[in-house]
Structure prediction request, 298 residues.
Amino acid sequence: MSDSFAEPGAMVDAVNPARSAGGQVAEDAPRAPSAVGYAASLLLVGLATVLAFVVQHLIAAPNLTLIYVLPVVVAATFFGWGPALLAAVAGVALFDFFFTAPFYSFQIANPADLWATALLLVVAAIVSSVAAESRRQAVESRRAARQAQALQALAHVIIEAAPQAEILDAAALALHRIFEAPAVIFLRRGTSVGLVAKAGGAKITSAEEDAARGAIDSRVATRGETYPYDQATFDFWPVTTPAGGCAVGVDFTRARGGRPASPDRFVDVVGGYLAAALAAPTGASPVRAPARGSPRRP
Prediction:
């Protein structure tokens, strides 16, 4: 085996054809940034206020509070609990300012209006909590499905006995899809340690190379931005291989959801797949089930 390292991501990924030649991966559906979510929530409350002005002559003022529940539900469903809470508070303030006497003031003279305002705040808070929890569960379900699909795709590449470079690319891609963060794999060949796969737009510096080499040499996981690798942003985990070992790394500083509480369980699975694949003889035939109706050897 040559000690030279090929440019990672040079081949088209068989698992994800959307992957570019530079190791980039097509991102999932874009998510609304937090600032956009808060701004959209305020816009929804403004639209609800316009609607309330239109119908205020048709329904009693206390019933107008129901209009302000709608932006809370929408904000909680699409943007989360924070924007929903902002929509609830803004809705209460605008209802008080425009639709309770004395008008265009935050004072409330009528006890019925005070009760309606308080009820709006309570109902909006409950609705936003329920809708936000439903959204959180939906997001968790999608994340779990994506993680399972990433592991399944990696297992498929290994079972098909793909070339080693393709397996390394698939492992980096799996880590990227699981954690939604840049991922890399460093491999030791002889006395050299070099980058062999990357995904998610990983940016590698000499600090990352040192951290990867340290993880391989010590067989102990390293953490980015922590001594003695405080200049590195990637966390690295060592993987034992017959050729001397490799290190898989994830940059949680660029992860969409930040660093998870226990990333080791997924890294261990990917590392186990990788160790088994690199231990297999080069060019080994994949294990396949016998075709239906074919005779079995005794």
